[in-house]
Amino acid sequence: MTLAQPPSPPPSPPSPPAPSPPPVSAAPHPAPAPRPLPVRVTRPLRVRSVPGRIRLLSAVSVLALAVLFGTLFTAAQSVREGLDVIGHDAGPQVVATADLYFALSDMDAQVANVLLIGGEHRLGKGRARALEVYERRRGDAGRAVLQASALAGDDPSERRTVQAVLDGLGRYERLAARALLLDEQSGHPAGPPPKSVLEVYRQATDLMRLELLPMAYNLTLESGTVVRRAHAERSLSVRTGQVLTAAAGAAAAGCLIWLQVFLARRFRRVFNPALLVATAIAGLYALTGVTVLGHEARVLGTAKRDGFDAILTLARARAVGSSMHGDQSRWLLDPERADTYEQTYLEKAQSVLYTPSDNLAAYQRAVAEKAGDGRTAFLGLVGQAAARTTLSGSAPAVADVLRQYKEFQQADRRMRELRPRGAVEQRMTRLETEFEQYDAALVKLAGLYRASFDREIGDGEERVRELWFLLPVAVASTAVLVLGGVRPRLTEYR
């Protein structure tokens, strides 16, 4: 029996031909990987190594030298500023404000002289000369006010005082001009003027004595604080700089010696010439700096105490003397106020040269007994100025001031003993001459102190200039020498 065969599956459709792979091109060579940059490893300074110790000692030495020269630079700068303030800036301006007091008081004295001369224009040195001096003092007062304004700076209190002086001076000049005009129209003989003239002059002199002169005096005192403050600050700075310079100099020399000893022991050398020279320069400059700063501190003290203070005191004495001279004219000019003017004259005289007295006659007798012997153990402005210094050559000038002051007081005593007409002639002739001689003696004494003051300031500035000039040379030379001393030793380790 034949088995039936299963039907064969239908033939599958032919599969599409497989796509041919794309032609293979030659692969490029791969780029070489970048090489890593070499890493520089900074090694810490090995202080325990010989080069590390040399570098450390050199750095400490250079730092000590920098402190030394920095301290000297700062101290020298303080000295320069202090000398400039006392000698060229605030000092002379303060003296100029004292001259303001003199100019104002002499203005009023000259107005009184003109009114006292009256129609006798040739009495004494004449009305024309008194008016000429008045105009000159007006110019002096104007310049002094300008200097006081410059010194006041931005200080509101001082600027208000300066402005008040300017306003008051303008009012005084108007009143004085009116009194002089009325006096010229009256043509009265020498002596007290008419009542109308006297009333106007009273307003002018009261304005001067009670307002302007006190303001001028206060302005001088306020301006003087600038010099005193500058002197105190600069003196302290110089003394501190002197101590710091000595300490820094010792430290710098010690560091250089330490470096020198280390190199000598390590490298079996007796000494390093460059470091020896650097050590010598540092020590010498430190010693010079300490010496110069000590000298400059003494210069600042001498210039302030024996120069500036003495000059300012004599300037005040001269201003008070001019006001006293004006009181003599006012005593004759206004009989109703004669007692007041005599008392104010006595108070001013005792401020110039003091001796205990109850009245003017007793004072003048005491001056006649004591002032002629040349002694300076008096209180008061002249005695203060004479006691401030032992300036060579000042003793004869002080004795001359005292002698001329005694003659001035004796001439005043004789004037007060005369009758009105004779007193006016005495005031305009002999008393005028005695006052001018006393004033000239004061100016001569002040000139001696001024010359000494200028010499001290000039000497101080010259020494500072020398120290200042050598400072860069010392800095550069020590730096080069230290570098030149250690560099050969460091190269041995490379």
Automatic annotation (TrEMBL):
Transmembrane regions: 56-76, 243-263, 275-294, 467-486
Composition-biased stretches (Pro residues): 1-37
Region (Disordered): 1-38
Alphabetic keyword roster: Membrane, Transmembrane, Transmembrane helix
Translocase is among the record's keywords: no
Keyword Transmembrane: yes
Protein's recorded name: Secreted protein
